[in-house]
Write a structure and sequence with these properties.
hpI Integrase, Chain A; disordered N terminus; 53% helix; DNA polymerase, domain 1; 314 residues; 2 domains; 13 helices; single chain
């Protein structure tokens, strides 16, 4: 069963503090619904562990015991995320002078496991893009989704949130609504634009069929399902995985793997890290640096071609 929201009718100081924190995340920080819900789940888990109704009574030892309990059954990345949620919450209370000291301040983040993003080779990527065929009812839409993910590197949540108004076919750009409601402009490649154009008649038919059934379609959504409503994140994940299997790709492929492939292939072709950071919508360059895992054959080739002391004598 999914944890209950941290916001409740409980009049305790902890419940009130959590409610105020949620409002702050939404209104002042502009965080997305998914992010706020993630914070809520993590904080609900902590309050269930601590069983204390007033944030003032939370000390470092309680937090440390909680972290130890997490470490026994969670990956270090999950522990770090939950600890980050706690630190943000107590910093919020500290700035409002509701507590005198942040009990998380003295606790170090766990050492994160080395993470290498999954990405496809160029040949695998081309095979995936060709996977939708005439036998697929939604082939034009699905091909447009695959082309768009690879052409722009957008997150799957950003993809399903797109509207027709976000696209500009003339200037070949799309306005993407990223984390924290931050907008960025991303160019779209011509194959993706053409695939999008080819998918529009199907979109119109889905809207018409929805109206004929007496229902209201989502006229703004760019990618629609059979009921004339926007595709969900889960639906896109499922179709990407299914087409990858059809293309003979053994590795588990997710929409995020296409985002990784987008970044990796750009860097392999000589794009600079700052430009890739802007295209991906990363707030920090360090987040983008995980994509600099270019294979040694490629690096050796660049070195041999570019370094004066590496040139072979003829």
């Amino acid at each position: 069963m999914e944890p209950q929201s941290a916001v409740s009718s409980d009049p305790s100081p902890m419940a009130q503090s959590l409610e105020n924190f949620h409002q702050w995340l939404q209104v002042e920080r502009g965080y997305s619904k998914n992010t706020v819900e993630s914070y809520g789940r993590d904080l609900t888990e902590f309050t269930g562990f601590a069983k204390i109704l007033d944030p003032v009574a939370i000390d470092t030892q309680i937090v440390r015991s909680y972290v130890y309990s997490l470490a026994a059954k969670n990956k270090s990345s999950s522990v770090a995320r939950k600890l980050s949620a706690l630190r943000t919450f107590f910093n919020f209370l500290l700035k409002r002078k509701l507590i005198e000291k942040n009990p998380v301040a003295a606790i170090s983040m766990p050492k994160l496991d080395r993470y290498m993003p999954v990405f496809l080779t160029v040949d695998e990527m081309f095979a995936l893009l060709e996977a939708p065929g005439e036998q697929d009812t939604f082939a034009p839409r699905d091909r447009a989704i695959l082309e768009f993910l690879y052409s722009t590197g957008v997150r799957v949540a950003e993809l399903v949130g797109l509207t027709m108004n976000d696209l500009d076919f003339d200037t070949e750009i799309v306005k993407v609504h990223g984390k924290g409601n931050k907008e960025r402009i991303v160019p779209i490649g011509k194959p993706a634009l053409e695939a999008l154009r080819m998918s529009l008649p199907l979109r119109d038919r889905l809207i018409a069929a929805c109206l004929q059934r007496g229902n209201q379609p989502d006229r703004n959504g760019l990618f629609l399902n059979s009921r004339g409503q926007r595709l969900t994140v889960r639906s896109v994940e499922r179709l990407v995985s299914n087409y990858a299997l059809r293309a003979g790709i053994i590795t588990r492929v997710t929409p995020h793997a296409l985002r990784h492939s987008f970044a990796t292939h750009l860097l392999e072709m000589g794009a600079d890290l700052r430009s890739v950071q802007e295209l991906l919508g990363h707030a920090s360059l360090s987040t983008t640096q995980k994509y600099t895992h270019l294979n040694m054959d490629y690096l050796t080739e660049v070195y041999d071609r570019a370094h004066p002391m590496a040139r072979k004598k003829s």
